């Protein structure tokens, strides 16, 4: 099956009503004589704007073409010129020794048009082969939940690298099949996604089963395997000796066909049994997982409760320690206050005691001075020898009794007394025995 060749079905501006004219249409509606264009590829250039979808990514791996069976010695400039009709190419590579190359166009639709028009087109006497290049960074995602969309799938896998395309495969009725395709811009991102998702990845909370990520197997299902691509060797001619046929009942082929059919039926039954067992095992695992999830939540709640209790106990201990510290500080302050009060009281007592002792020691001296000053004011002699001697022994004893404390407390201050006396002045009169006419008292 050959593709459309050349400009017979061109999708560009050379369609009816869009072709450039020199002089316009005739009055009878006939086409004017064609004229040579100034540029040979001008009439073959596509209107690229009409093949772009809103928000579509350009120059992706899906728009990369494999070009095979190229003539020997073909250059990259020649390959670019061959695809110049389909816009500017972003990647051109040619292996001149093996005769193949790669070219990346702007969009997938333009690449499909280029493939349909140039595939099996003669170029320098050789029909070239145009196919979509294998996407080395594409992944197949299986076991997808029902409520996963293209946007959610792209959001989930975008953490591993930049994504070109992420789609969820649906059936003819638009229902999800549980499979999807994720295409990255680089192979390291795809390998990272494979390694990470191999440990199990969940896209939805209520979906207990993990998704399965595998490298995508790419098939050329558009054209398949035409007759011209089969290698016609000796084995090919041996297998093609007879045309396709159906076995007739009673023949050798029919007998073994029935046996093969029975074996296939057994295989089908085994697969159905395995599917039932797998579904039962999945349901059992889901039930166990749900029960384990509840237990896990209860365990987490218990751990949280124990953690809070431990925090509460720790806070109570800290509070009690703080209260004890405050009590100790208050006790120390109270003891310090009591000690200061006791020291103050003892200091006051000591001062009062000293004041009392000083008052008692100075009292006789002050009295003697007052008496002397009084006697000096009346003109009385200060010599004690002039005192009478008619005092008795009782007066002398009284004089000695009263004079002893005054002498003890007077000290050396008696030298300053008027009259130059050395001792204290007695209160009473001198006795007769002490002061007689023939006796004098020594001072």
Automatic annotation (TrEMBL):
Residue stretches of biased makeup (Low complexity): 385-417
Location of region: Disordered: 1-42, 326-443
Keyword terms of this UniProt record: Repeat, RNA-binding
Comp. bias (Basic and acidic residues): 326-357
Presence of keyword Ligase: no
GO molecular function, one term: RNA binding
Compartments, record wording: Nucleus speckle
CC per GO annotation: nuclear speck
Segments passing through the bilayer: none
Sequence ranges of Gly residues compositional bias: 418-434
The keyword Cell membrane appears for this protein: no
Residue spans of biased composition, Polar residues class: 1-12
Pfam families in alphabetical order: NOPS (PF08075), RRM_1 (PF00076)
Residue span(s) of domain RRM: 63-135, 137-218
Protein name (record): RRM domain-containing protein
Organism for this UniProt entry: Salarias fasciatus (Jewelled blenny)
Gene, per the UniProt record: nono
